[in-house]
Amino acid sequence: MNKLTRSILDLRWQQRCTHRTTSILQFTKKLSLTFHRLLISLLALLVFNWGLQPEIALAQTQTISPPAKTQMPAASSIQPYLDRVIDQLTEFRLENNLKFIVLERHQAPVVSFLTYADVGGVDEPDGKTGVAHFLEHLAFKGTTRIGTEDYKAEKPLLERLEQLDAQIRAAKANAKKDEVVRLEAEFKQVESQAGKLVKQNELGRIVEQAGGVGLNATTSTEATRYFYSFPANKLELWMSLESERFLDPVIRREFYKEKDVILEERRMRVDNSPIGLMLEKFTDAAYKVHPYRRPVIGYDKDIRNLTPEDVQKFFDAYYVPSNLAIAIVGDVNPAQVKQLAQVYFGRYRAKAKATEQIPVEPRQQQTREVSLELPAQPLYLEGYHRPSVTHPDNVVYEIIGSLLSDGRTSRLYKSLVEKQRLALNAQGFSGFPGDKYSNLMLFYALTAPGHTLDELAVALRQEIDKLKTQPVAAVELERVKTQARADLLRTLTSNTGMAQQLLEFEVKTGSWRNLFKQLDEIAAVTPDDIQRVAKTTFTPENRTIGKLLSKQG
């Protein structure tokens, strides 16, 4: 994968944050072949790394491919495969309304687990951006029993730190410098005392010692996902650890240290990154009222002002059973899963989820353009608003993205890179920065030496306009459809991939069954559909342009 592709993948995923350092390149190499068609919020494909505690980064979530005889079927045999999957799937809800999806796969004695919280950056209150991501980090700090030497001794110290932090803020606001110095000295002393009572990364050690892999989490614009895999005989251990994690979290533990980590991540990935800065400016121009315009990591000022009370309130509002869903895929017995789920997760008190209050983005009426001049390689961005993942034309948009930019046979690559040699790379995709709500189809291109961003803009638009004026040839369309179906099915061959997809469709579209309906929807796309959607979407008034200009000297 070349440097540009890695950078643009970072750009695409700067609206998503992962808990700890794993191999970014491992993720991106797998990602690049499939991300044009699959739902933008696939958990295991997240590549933008908001690292935390690299010393406990375990292996990438384990994926077990079925034996050769059950590998991905040919297009002609898809239905029997899907029927078999559906036959092996069980779903149930506990009395507290927590949803479980269980898929039996007995090819290997491994199970993948995914806990999906239907909450992300879009749900954050104004002035509290970054709180969803902050909470995801703190969910690895442990409970009153895990991660501490003595919680009774630790608790008053954590409470005192919160008091001191509030007093320091007040003293700074009143310009009481001497008092600030005194309070900060006490803060450091108390923080050191509290730190001595922390069992660093105890959750990670428990998982690793029991044979678990892939302990990690991600926060996106619209969801937070926690996941790892265990040997099949550790089902009850997972039930115990995961239920305890959200039943009894200690939000205050290492809160201020984690804040410093997140602020450094923002500096590295946004403030000191030309692409990161361009992204924030571009999304801020493309959206006027919808919270998609805000970065998931949060704004610097908001992160600095977040308190344990802010995070606790957010947790209490959104981490309720009715707003959680869990997928378990692998060598399991559904009856046993249900019995253990009732024992461990049945302890959660039933509670209604917070009322959604997300404003609808008004229709864009004219072209918007933003630019930045920085010491960086020139980059061109062009985005068009499109409807959410639940819209009937969702698959049409995915096919358009594939036609234009899926690999070396795509139109953008063949025209802008190979034939005209205007760009070093040119691609596009749907679902930026999320897909639960109306989002963007985003295109990008990096200039080749001796060419300008304006030249790229003209050439890119010519290829887009062809979709409006010239029907796609049947052979080309069928090739793209075949690849789209193959990519989707290939994702489902791993336990982790299946768990991710089942929950994405369950939460965002209302049923996991829509995952399999997507195959029929892909097959049904016609040249007329592509022309119709292109004509209504790719208009000047619906266009947002971003230009990252190279600063000389």
Topology, element by element:
Elements: H1 3-13, E1 17-18, H2 24-31, H3 78-87, E2 89-93, E3 99-104, E4 110-117, H4 131-138, H5 151-173, H6 177-195, H7 202-209, E5 213-219, E6 224-231, H8 235-247, H9 255-271, H10 274-286, H11 300-305, H12 308-318, E7 324-330, H13 334-344, E8 368-374, E9 379-386, H14 394-405, H15 411-419, E10 423-432, E11 439-447, H16 453-469, H17 474-491, H18 495-509, H19 514-524, H20 527-537, E12 543-550
Parallel strand pairs: 3-7, 8-12
Antiparallel strand pairs: 1-5, 2-3, 4-6, 4-7, 5-6, 9-11, 9-12, 10-11
Features:
553 residues; alpha+beta; seven-stranded mixed β-sheet; five-stranded mixed β-sheet; 20 helices; 12 strands; 15% strand; disordered N terminus
Folded structure, characterized:
This protein is α+β, with helices and mostly antiparallel strands. It is built from 20 helices and twelve strands. The strands form two sheets. A seven-stranded mixed sheet has the order 1-5-6-4-7-3-2, with helices on both faces. Strand 2 (89-93) and strand 3 (99-104) form a beta hairpin. The radius of gyration is 24 Å and the shape is globular.
Give the count of helical stretches: 20
Instruction: Please state the structural category.
Output: alpha+beta
Query: If strands are numbered along the chain, what order do they take across the biggest sheet?
Result: 1-5-6-4-7-3-2
Q: Please estimate the helix content.
A: 40-55%
Stretches where pLDDT falls below 50 for ≥5 residues? 1-16, 20-76
Shape: globular
Largest sheet: 7 strands, mixed
Mean pLDDT: 86
How large is the share of residues in beta strands?
Answer: 15-25%
Distance between the termini: 30 Å
What's the Cα radius of gyration?
A: 24 Å
Total count of strands: 12
